[in-house]
Please model this.
Amino acid sequence: MTATHICNQITKLRESIRQYEQQYGRTENSVRLLAVSKTQAIESIQEAIRCGQMDFGENYAQELAEKARVIGQEVVHWHFIGPIQSNKTKMLSETVNWVHTIDRIKIAKRLNEQRPTDLPPLNICLQVNLDEEASKSGISLNKISELAEAVTNMDQLKLRGLMTIPKPQPDFSAQRKTFARLRKAQEKLIAQGFALDTLSMGMTADYEAAIAEGATIIRIGTALFGARR
Ligand SMILES: *Cc1c(COP(=O)(O)O)cnc(C)c1O
Model:
């Protein structure tokens, strides 16, 4: 996409988020737009920054490292939203503000140990596999309390909430039903005493349904930057 297109898309997305917030009785500005920039050129990210975009999500550790080196760590908030290998935890713990894809204690422990103490605690979402597909990452619903408990006890991590990538659903009401399950899981954890404020759910094809069900971070790639390379 050209530079003007990126700005236009950001403006349109912001307007559509505000509209859905109103429509579904959500507090104004309670939904944050995370620009998913995986495979996109650094120039596109820089353009989005010029249009006021602050949060960027990447799936591949190496790609994130390169982009963060060029753009800087202080200028924007980097979110990691891909599967994490053990040998990437050090770099991630030193670079990002958020990790949305924690589904194993082992990775959480490494991030906690490696997070530099002069940085604020790393914001964490637990990735939940709602569809119980064996091939997908994420923990199943009946195991989240245990993982939430473990992460809460790690000083350099701050548990913020839950994240999910549901399998594509054909219609709006099916999308809402899926996202409602994540919202209810979060409400249950809050009732158990966990202080959570984040639901990371909704992408280009289903973000309206996600906002309707309480998303606080929507992760948008295609609608913002166009098709991926
Ligand atoms: C790629 C990706 C997105 C963005 O998807 P779009 O459909 O392009 O908006 C969001 N979340 C995750 C975890 C992704 O991998």
About this structure: The beta strands are 32-36, 55-58, 77-80, 98-102, 122-128, 157-164, 198-200, 217-220. The chain has a mean pLDDT of 96. The chain is about 40% helix and 15% strand.
